[in-house]
Every structure is written in C-alpha cells, then in structure tokens.
Design a protein that fits this description.
- This protein has a nine-stranded mixed β-sheet, covered by helices on one side. The protein has a five-stranded mixed β-sheet with strand order 10-11-14-12-13, with helices on both faces. A five-stranded mixed β-sheet has the order 15-17-16-19-18.
- Helix 9 crosses helix 14, helix 16 crosses helix 19 and helix 19 runs parallel beside helix 22.
- It has four domains: 217 residues, Histidine kinase-like ATPase, C-terminal domain (Heat Shock Protein 90); 137 residues, Ribosomal Protein S5, domain 2 (2-Layer Sandwich); 108 residues, Rossmann fold (3-Layer(aba) Sandwich), CATH 3.40.50.11260; 141 residues, Heat shock protein 90, C-terminal domain (Four Helix Bundle (Hemerythrin (Met), subunit A), Up-down Bundle).
- The protein is α+β, with helices and mostly antiparallel strands.
- The chain is elongated, with a radius of gyration of 38 Å.
- The C terminus is likely disordered.
- It contains 22 helices and 22 strands.
Amino acid sequence: MPEEAGAPEALEFRAEVQQLLNILAHSLYTEREIFLRELMSNASDALHRVQFEMLTNRDVFDPDAPLAIHIDFDSTAHTLTVSDSGIGMTHDELIENLGTIAHSGAMAFLKGLEEGQRPADIIGQFGVGFYSVFMVADEVTVTTRSYRPDEQAWRWVSNGGSQFTLNPAEREQRGTTVDIKLKDGGGADARGADAGEFASAWRLEQIVKRHSNYVSFPIYVKDRIANQQSALWRKPMKDVQAGDYDDFYRQLTLDSEGPLAHVHIITDAPVDIRSILYVPRALERTPLATRSEYGLQLYSRKILIQEHSKDLLPDYLRFVEGVVDSEDIPLNISRETVQSNRLMQQIQKALVGRLLKTLRQLAEERPEDYRVFWEQFGAYIKQGVAISQADRNDLLPLLRFATSTSDGKLVSLAEYAGRMAQDQKAIYYILGGDRASVEHSPHLDPFRVRGLEVLYLLDPFDGLMMQNLREYEGKPLQNVDDPHLDLPAAPPPEKQAESEAAAPDLAPLVARAKLVLGARVSDVRETQLLTDSPCRLVSTAGGFDRDLQRMRRLLEQEFELPAKILELNPRHPLVRNLARLVATRPEDALIAPAIEQLYENQLLLEGLHPNPAGMVPRIQQLLEAATRADPAVTADHVAEGGTPEGGTPESSTPEGGPAQAEVPTQQVE
C-alpha cells in the first residue's frame, strides 16, 4: 500500500518493458479481435477463483453478486467496457498482475522470445494477454475491487507508453471493469487503424461465439447473453443423448447430414483430454486437393485457441471433424500456437487410438455404413498405411478391396487370407485405372484358370501404399505383373497336344517385335501362362518403382514409362496368324502397326498409356485394311500365300489379305 492512500501513483515502465509491450500489442497476435478473447479469459479466471473461494469462505465482499461477464459499448464515444464480478484485485495484486512483465527478468524474457523459448511461467497470467488490448486501445482504465471486505477499490490507467498510474477509486461491486478508449484511426499500419468495428453488438457477439462460446459463465453483450456456456465435450457421457451429438455436429460443421460415427473422449491420465470427434458421411475435397481449412478446434479450458489445429491428428485423418479441450496443452506466449513437445504426441496418440478403434467397430458392427465410409475416405486410410509406420498395424484391418471373385463386394485382407488356396504362396494384387480395365487385363488369365483371387487396386494411392505394404500376417503381397510368378499348377487345357502341334514358330515374330518396339521394351518372349489374351506386359526383375508408375504419370509432366517385357501367347489366334504373316510376308506394311497396337493396348489396360488419342490413326489404318478384305477367305489361306477371290497377289499386299484383316479385327474387339 502507498504511504498516502488517497494520493495517485505514477509508475515508470523500464525501457526494455516498453519494448516488450510493443511486441505484445503489435507483433504477437495474428488478429486484432483476439484482445476480446484474452479479456474474456481473464474475466472467466477471476470468476472461477472467487467461486472456489466462496466454497470455503463466506467472508467475501458482495457474496450475492451474480457471476457473469458484461460487455458494453458506446459507438458515439468510441468506447468499450468489459466487466466481471470475479475475485478482483488489491493495490499490490494490481501492480503484480498488470506489472508481471515489469519484473527485473523482463530483459531475459525478451531474450527468450528472440530465441524461440517458451516463457511457461507467464502463460495465462493477467499481465500478458491483457496487453493485447493495446492493439485496439488508445487508453485503458482498469477499475477493480477485491473480494476481501476490508480492501478498497483501485484504478489503473495506461496508454501503453512509458508510464501507468494508480489511484484509489470508488466501486460498489466486487470484481473488475476494463474501460477501453478505442483507436480512431491514423495508425501507420493495420494494427493502428480505426477500431470502431468493436463498438458493435453484432461484431462483439460474433467474437464471443467464435472464441469464448463455452465459457462457464454468461457473457452479456448489452443485455443479451452471447455465449452458449455449456460445452458438450465436458459433460459426462451418461448425460449426453445421441441427438445431442448430432446437433452439435451440425452446429460445428454446418453439414445437413448427421455424421457416420462419433467418439467422445474423456481422460485424465497420462494427459487431460476432453474431446468429441466425428467421422462425416461425405467430404467433397479429395486427398490430392489442397485443403487449407482442415483441423480440429482446439480449446484450453473451454477457450478457443486454434480454429483449425493441424497438430492434433496425423495428416491421413484430416477428414475428421471435432473439438479437443485440454488444460495440459502447452501454449506459446500469445496462446495462438501449440508448442510441439512430448505432451502433444501423447494427445495425438490417444486421439488416433480411439478413432481407429471406433472405425474398426464401425466396420464390424455396421458394414453398410463402413462401405459408405470407405467409398469416401478409403484413400486417406491407404495414405496412412503408406506413410505411418507407427499406425500401420492398426490401419490394416480397415483396408477394403474389390477382388476378381468378390462380385463387387469389398473384402478385407483377413477375409482374403482366410480363403486362400491351400498351395497359394502369396496375396496377389493388380494395379489399374478402373475396374473395367483390370477385369480385361491379360494378367488375370492364369489366375482365372487356377481359381485364385486377385485384389483390385484402382486408386492412384494404391501404388504408394504397396511400396510400404509388402506382407500381411507373414504372407507376401505380389503384383500379378511379376515376371517370376510362382503359381500352383493349372489344370491341363483342352486339346493341349493338338494346339501345341498347330502352334507356329514365334521366333520371327519375337525378333520383329523387338525391332519395331525397340527401347520401349526390355525383352519380347513367349509365355505359357496366358490363355485368353494375346499378350501382356510384365515388369523386369527389380523394375524401378513399378507400383508407383500410374501415380508418377499423373503427377510428372515428363514421366517416361520404364521398359517392360512383352510376353506373347503362342496359343492365341491373333498371335498365330501374325507370326505366320511375319514368316511368309515379312515386308507386309501392316505388321509394324499391328505390333504397335498390341503393345499399346496393354499400356491402355494398365492405365499407363501416355496419349491414348494417338492410337486413333493406327486403328483407322487397321480398320481400313480389315474392311477391304474378303471375309470368305481364311487367314490361314492368305498366310499360306493365297489371295482373295478375284484378286491378285499384288492386290493382297500390303492391305488386301484376310490375314492382315484378322489382326486389326481382333484388336478392335
């Protein structure tokens, strides 16, 4: 207490403290409206403290005063007033609280800020957040009266300069009032601009609802309550109805539909968490799109700290909506940024664990709803498998695939593994751009014959996922284009001996294909695996990034397809006839385009063709040859040197013969 209780005191800020005030008021916060959040937080803390005091002490000044916060303004006078009926302050407490930053450690505090250190002991104290008010104020007056009956009221006045004054004051009620003379413009930058917007009921209510909606005490703007007060996530689960969760979700997201699932988390150890998380039914954004507004709402003691916190969940769960409130969250000096430390990792681990458990329960108990989830968010789960080593085992049960035998039903890896053939050595998968393409893929020929199931991987992310998912429960995952497939024995084909006897020598065709395709293929060879398809492309042993080729083609402008092996089926009519044509008339002009078309057909089926429209002129050339051929003449007749009826050998070359016609006709189909 001063020696003369009625005399005003003028106290000097130290030079370095004035510098610190400038940082607090003009550099620390991202938005000017934050000042009101800080004042609401201070008022709420004061109300909590007096509430706690009255639990054990009835000797409190003005004990019947309603616990509330009042905001008033005068747009004509350019003033704003925030008052509470909280704990109040004595003379010494006023100096300590509003002068915390004026302690002898101020220079060390400044140095710590410059070095990026966290001044933990100051976080949440009245003196730091309070000074954000100078972003909008030319002058601030604080009038306060302590809860202690024998203490008088005091008035603190500052314009954010080098001095503040203390005077005795008259105040009939317990608590604190902050009177703000708003800036009226003329500043050199946006922070010094006119602050008249804050003398508006609509603007003040908007800020309260955004940042302080769940403060436990009523916040009045003029005479109307502006905040909701009750935070659903802090209620005991037994007191929350199912409809309450859906209503809060709609309020939070403005989504007209309810969520697919929610999880209510209340924990005290190892870290304090109060949270409600939601899985939406749909999300218009795609995993490849840049989504700047994702993230959970982060609260500390029911005060909004970050509207879109991206640190609480891993990136692959960015579709999740919800709120997280924790008194343990380590905040920086402005309370706008969360410090990255072990505690945040514990919070994230707890949230992720509960979310993934909820998704597994959804898959087991409500498979139809899980199918909806997978169609909307399956790519995100695959991304998690690809990038999160820590969560991979928990994510694997969530994976779903269409398969070659599931008739459109989505299958888990566990279901696939449970019905593998007795002598099956691997889990097989095929990559493609769409279901129609993979269903017509020649790679499936040997699997159909053997009755083996193949996973359909149709998303661009699938290739990335398979780079990191090499086995499941000890069973390797193998691409069907592997050049060294080790498959169970197949049943013998009908008339095998007869077909082998009729098979032509493919050596000339193989040599010609190598010449035509050049460096685009690493080799051309026969294969006995194919049944219904004329050829296929397989990767070379240790082929570079083969699972990533489709994604790279989408993302890289200069993508070059690695050379693959072209395998020919000697039992297919198209390959037989083409082989005979090469052997008997190697100069035929349609041989090269037919080989090109065979090769590019496979690129198209695998979703790797760089320019499908470029095939059109060649297809037209082959069709023209086919339409000029005489269908009464067999391909074998022409291959043996015959000519169409009424024609001459010259007219059958290069485009007249039915042998050439059969090549493009087969491809058109």
